[in-house]
C-alpha cells in the first residue's frame, strides 16, 4: 500500500526521518526533505504509530518535535493524523495516532484566561452583564439594563459621531491610520481585541475533539481518531497573513503614531438625547499594534486613494467651469470608466435597462410584488386602466422609498438641495421589467403627479429622481446598515463571546477580517460632520440619523435570511433575477457547509443548548447589539436554528456585501444614473420639464467628481483579498474540517462556472456574486 506523508504546511525543516508502525511491524525509514511531502510504498498495514527522528550531528540522530506541529499520513482510502507536542520527552520514540489534543486545542485553564482578557475589552464598550451575573450573560430583560453605557449597539453605530469614533483634542490626524482589528492570531496567542463571556461548566466543542474516552466525540470525530475516516483530499495552500514581510513598516508606523502621540488611544463618545448613550471620556478601543489594519492593507488603501485622486484631478482639468449645459457635457469628465459603466452610460435612458437595475444592480433587494392597488397612488387606475388585471396575474412589482418621506434636505456650497420619496410601479413583460408609473412623493395630490412613459423629458427626470433616491437607500441602508454596521455588531460578539479555539470562532475568524477598522475609517470620512455625505449629498447628519433610525426599527432577522427575504417580497418567479439565483446558490452552499461543521462538533440539539459560549454570542447580539429591541433570537435551541443563524452571518459578511458593494463604480460613474444630490425640487407637472430643467436639477461638476471618486475607491479590491471559502492553513488542514472545506470550495467553484457560462450569452452580465470575487469579509 502506498502512503503519502506530509509534515505541517510551510515547514522548512530538513533531515527528518519517519517510519510508520503497526504493532511490531515497521515500514522502511524515509527522509523528509524540504518539500515536506514523501511517499512510503513498502508498508501494507494501517499505521497506528509514527516514529520521528532528526539528524542532529554527523553520526547521531535524536527524536525531535522542534520543526513541526503535526504529521499527516494519507492513503487512497483514509487519512491518519499524528499531533506533535513541543513538551514531548526526547526519549520517547513514537506518537500514537489520535493520542491527544491537536496543537490548537487549549486546555480549560488557558481558555479561561483567554476569556478573561476578552471580557476587559467587552467592558470598554458597555457590554457588561448585571452585577452578580458573573461571566455568563443571563437571559431575560434584565440583561440589557446594565448601568454601563453601551456604545456599540446597532443604533449607536448608525449615529455619526455617536459611533464612538470622534476626533479628540486635534490628535486624530488621519482616519486610515487609526486602527487594525486583525482576526489572525499573534504568535504569542495574545489577542487583546476580543473579550469575554464565561467559560461554560459544560465541556465545549473544542474539548470534545480530544475527549474520545469520555464519550463526548461525534461519530465523525471517532472515525477520524481511529484512522478510518473517509478519504481526505489534499488541501492546497490556503490563506496565510503576509504581515511578516511588512514587519519593519509596521514597526515604523507603530513607533511614529503611538510613541509620537499623533493618534490618541482614547476616543471620545458623545450622547444624543433619545438614543443609546455614550460616555464622554471613555475608551472605545485602546489602539495598539495588533489592532490596526495590517501595514500591507494600509499601504494598498493609500495606493488606491492616490490613484483615485489622480483620476479626479485629470477629470477636473478636462472640464473647466462648474455647470453643465447639456447631458453630453458630462462625458468630458467620464474618464476611466469600467466596461459596465460605459454600457450604463449608453443605455441609462432605456426603460428596460432602468427596470433591470432593480434586479441586478447594486441595490437588488428593494423590489417586491404588488398584490393590490397601492393606497398611496389612488390615481393609478386613470393612467393604467388594466392595473387590477395585471396585479391579479402577478405581473406588477413595486419599489417604495418611504424611508425618505419627510426627511430634511441639506445645503451644499450655499445652495439648498432637495429630496424625494418616490414610488415606482413596474410590469413584467416579454421585453423585461418595464417601469409604468412613478410618483415622486408619498402623499398623493395635485402637486404630486403620476409620471408615465408618455411624459417625455419629465419621464426621464422622474427616473433620475428614482435613481437619486435609490442611491441614498442603497448606500445608507442596504450597504452601510445591513452589511457594515450589522457585521460590526455580529463580529464583535463572535470574537468576544467565543474562545479563540472554539470551532465556530475559528471558522468565522476570517469573516471578521478588517471589518471594524474599515467601519471606523468610513465613519471618519463618509458619514461624519465633514464627510462625503454631508458635503456632497442632499443628506445632512440629522437626515442620515433619521433614515437609519427608521431602517433599524424595520430590520428583522428573517429579512436577512435570503430564502425568507425573497419569499416575503414575492419575487421567486421573477424572470432574469440573477441576484436571487446566484444568491440562493451561495446561500445553499454556505448553509450546507455550516451544517457539516455543526454536525462535526455537536452531536444533537442538547449540545447546542449546553454550549454557553455559543449561547452568549446570540445573547450579546440580542441584548447589546439591538438592546433587546429586535426579533433576532435571544437563544438558539437546535442545530438547525444555529445553522440558519450562522448562515445569515456568513452570507451577510460575504455575498450580500459583494452584491451591494462591488457594483458601485459601475452604477454611479455615469452621474445621471445615480446622482448624489438634486438641486431643484421634484417637478409639479410634466410640461415644465425640458433638458435645461434637468441640467439645473443635476449636481454640479465638483459634486459629480467627488461622487465618482468615492464610488471608484469603494469598489476596488485590494491585493490581500481573501475569497469566500478560503481559510488559514491551520483551519483548512484541520482533519475535522478538511473535507468539509474542500467540498465547500468545490461547490463555490461549480457556482462560478455556471455564472461564467451564463455571462457568455448576456448583453449585461451579472457577476457581482461570482464566488472568486466575493471576499470572505467586509474589508472595503
Structural commentary:
- The chain has 780 residues and is α+β, with helices and mostly antiparallel strands.
- Helix content is 39%, strand content 9%.
- The strands form four sheets. Strands 2, 3, 4, 6, 7 and 10 form a six-stranded antiparallel sheet that branches. A five-stranded antiparallel sheet has the order 11-12-15-16-17. Strands 5-1-8-9 form a four-stranded antiparallel sheet, with no helix packed on it.
- Strand 13 and strand 14 form a beta hairpin.
- Helix 6 packs antiparallel against helix 23, helix 11 packs across helix 20 and helix 17 packs antiparallel against helix 20.
- The longest helix is centred in the middle third of the chain and has 42 residues.
- About 23% of the residues have low confidence.
Write the layout of secondary structure elements.
Elements: E1 3-7, E2 16-22, E3 25-26, E4 30-32, E5 37-40, E6 49-55, E7 61-62, E8 70-74, E9 79-83, E10 94-96, H1 108-124, H2 154-157, H3 205-208, H4 219-225, H5 247-259, H6 295-316, H7 339-347, H8 351-360, E11 368-369, H9 380-383, H10 387-392, E12 396-400, E13 411-412, E14 415-416, E15 423-429, E16 432-439, E17 450-451, H11 456-497, H12 503-508, H13 515-525, H14 532-536, H15 541-554, H16 562-569, H17 578-601, H18 605-610, H19 612-625, H20 639-661, H21 664-668, H22 691-697, H23 701-714, H24 729-732, H25 738-759
Antiparallel strand pairs: 1-5, 1-8, 2-3, 2-4, 2-6, 6-7, 6-10, 8-9, 11-12, 12-15, 13-14, 15-16, 16-17
Amino acid at each position: 500500500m502506498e502512503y503519502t506523508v506530509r509534515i505541517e504546511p510551510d515547514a522548512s525543516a530538513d533531515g527528518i526521518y519517519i517510519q510508520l508502525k503497526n504493532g511490531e511491524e515497521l515500514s522502511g525509514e524515509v527522509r523528509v526533505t524540504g518539500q515536506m511531502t514523501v511517499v512510503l510504498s513498502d508498508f501494507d498495514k494501517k499505521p497506528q504509530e509514527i516514529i520521528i527522528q532528526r539528524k542532529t550531528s554527523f553520526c547521531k540522530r535524536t527524536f525531535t518535535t522542534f520543526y513541526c506541529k503535526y504529521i499527516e499520513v494519507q492513503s487512497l482510502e483514509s487519512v491518519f493524523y499524528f499531533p506533535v507536542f513541543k513538551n514531548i520527552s526526547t526519549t520517547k520514540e513514537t506518537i500514537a495516532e489520535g493520542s491527544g489534543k491537536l496543537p490548537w486545542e487549549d486546555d480549560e485553564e488557558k481558555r479561561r484566561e483567554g476569556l478573561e482578557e476578552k471580557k476587559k475589552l467587552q467592558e470598554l464598550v458597555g457590554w457588561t452583564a448585571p452585577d452578580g451575573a458573573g461571566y455568563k450573560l443571563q437571559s431575560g430583560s434584565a440583561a440589557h439594563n446594565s448601568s454601563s453605557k453601551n456604545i456599540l449597539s446597532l443604533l449607536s453605530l448608525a449615529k455619526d459621531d455617536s459611533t464612538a469614533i470622534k476626533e479628540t483634542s486635534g490628535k486624530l490626524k488621519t482616519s486610515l491610520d487609526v486602527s487594525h482589528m486583525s482576526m489572525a492570531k499573534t504568535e504569542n496567542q495574545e489577542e487583546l481585541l476580543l473579550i469575554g463571556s464565561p467559560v461554560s461548566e459544560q465541556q465545549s466543542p473544542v474539548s470534545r475533539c480530544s475527549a474520545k474516552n469520555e464519550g463526548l466525540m461525534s461519530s465523525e470525530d471517532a472515525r477520524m481518531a481511529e484512522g478510518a475516516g473517509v478519504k481526505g483530499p489534499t488541501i492546497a495552500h490556503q490563506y496565510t497573513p503576509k504581515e511578516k514581510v511588512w514587519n519593519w513598516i509596521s514597526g515604523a508606523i507603530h513607533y511614529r503614531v503611538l510613541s509620537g502621540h499623533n493618534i490618541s488611544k482614547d476616543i471620545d463618545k458623545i450622547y444624543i438625547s433619545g438614543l443609546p448613550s455614550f460616555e464622554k471620556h471613555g475608551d472605545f478601543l485602546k489602539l495598539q499594534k495588533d489592532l490596526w489594519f495590517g501595514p500591507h492593507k494600509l499601504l494598498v488603501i493609500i495606493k488606491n486613494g492616490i490613484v483615485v485622486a489622480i483620476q479626479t484631478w485629470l477629470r477636473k482639468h478636462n472640464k473647466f467651469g462648474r455647470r453643465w449645459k447639456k447631458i453630453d457635457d458630462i462625458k468630458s469628465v467620464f474618464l476611466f470608466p469600467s466596461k459596465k459603466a460605459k454600457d450604463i452610460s449608453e443605455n441609462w435612458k432605456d426603460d428596460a435597462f432602468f427596470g433591470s437595475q432593480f434586479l441586478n444592480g447594486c441595490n437588488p433587494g428593494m423590489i417586491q410584488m404588488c398584490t393590490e392597488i397601492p393606497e398611496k397612488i389612488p390615481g393609478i387606475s386613470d393612467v393604467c386602466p388594466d392595473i387590477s388585471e395585471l396585479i391579479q396575474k402577478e405581473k406588477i412589482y413595486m419599489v417604495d422609498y418611504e424611508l425618505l418621506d419627510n426627511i430634511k434636505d441639506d445645503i451644499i456650497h450655499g445652495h439648498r438641495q432637495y429630496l424625494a420619496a418616490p414610488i415606482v410601479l413596474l410590469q413584467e413583460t416579454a421585453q423585461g421589467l418595464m417601469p409604468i408609473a412613478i410618483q415622486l412623493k408619498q402623499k398623493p395630490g395635485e402637486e404630486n403627479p403620476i409620471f408615465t412613459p408618455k411624459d417625455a423629458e419629465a419621464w426621464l427626470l422622474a427616473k433620475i429622481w428614482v435613481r437619486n433616491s435609490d442611491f441614498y437607500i442603497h448606500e445608507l441602508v442596504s450597504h452601510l446598515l445591513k452589511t457594515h454596521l450589522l457585521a460590526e455588531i455580529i463580529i464583535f460578539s463572535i470574537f468576544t463571546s467565543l474562545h479563540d479555539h472554539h470551532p465556530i470562532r475559528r471558522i468565522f475568524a476570517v469573516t471578521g477580517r478588517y471589518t471594524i477598522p474599515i467601519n471606523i475609517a468610513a465613519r471618519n470620512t463618509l458619514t461624519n460632520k465633514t464627510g462625503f455625505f454631508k458635503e456632497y449629498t442632499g443628506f445632512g447628519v440629522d437626515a442620515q440619523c433619521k433614515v437609519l433610525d427608521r431602517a433599524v426599527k424595520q430590520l428583522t432577522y428573517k429579512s436577512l435570511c435570503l430564502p425568507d427575504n425573497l419569499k416575503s417580497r414575492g419575487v421567486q418567479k421573477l424572470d432574469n433575477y440573477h441576484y436571487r439565483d446566484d444568491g440562493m446558490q451561495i446561500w445553499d452552499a454556505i448553509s450546507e457547509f455550516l451544517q457539516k461543521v455543526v454536525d462535526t462538533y455537536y452531536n444533537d440539539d442538547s449540545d447546542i443548548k449546553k454550549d454557553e459560549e455559543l449561547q452568549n454570542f446570540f445573547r450579546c447580539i440580542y441584548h447589546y447589539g439591538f438592546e433587546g429591541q429586535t426579533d433576532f433570537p435571544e437563544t438558539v435551541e437546535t442545530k438547525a436554528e444555529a445553522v440558519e443563524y450562522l448562515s445569515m452571518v456568513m452570507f451577510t459578511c460575504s455575498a450580500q456585501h459583494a452584491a451591494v458593494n462591488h457594483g458601485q463604480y459601475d452604477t454611479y460613474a455615469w452621474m445621471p444614473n445615480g446622482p448624489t444630490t438634486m438641486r431643484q425640487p421634484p417637478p409639479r407637472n410634466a410640461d415644465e420639464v425640458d433638458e435645461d430643467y434637468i441640467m439645473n436639477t443635476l449636481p454640479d461638476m465638483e459634486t459629480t467628481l467627488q461622487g465618482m471618486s468615492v464610488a471608484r475607491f469603494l469598489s476596488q479590491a485590494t491585493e490581500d483579498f481573501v475569497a469566500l471559502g478560503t481559510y488559514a492553513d491551520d483551519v483548512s488542514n484541520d482533519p475535522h474540517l478538511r473535507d468539509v472545506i474542500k467540498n465547500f470550495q468545490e461547490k463555490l467553484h461549480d457556482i462560478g462556472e455556471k455564472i461564467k457560462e451564463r455571462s457568455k450569452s448576456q448583453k449585461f452580465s451579472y457577476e457581482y456574486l461570482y464566488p472568486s470575487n466575493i471576499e470572505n469579509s467586509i474589508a472595503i
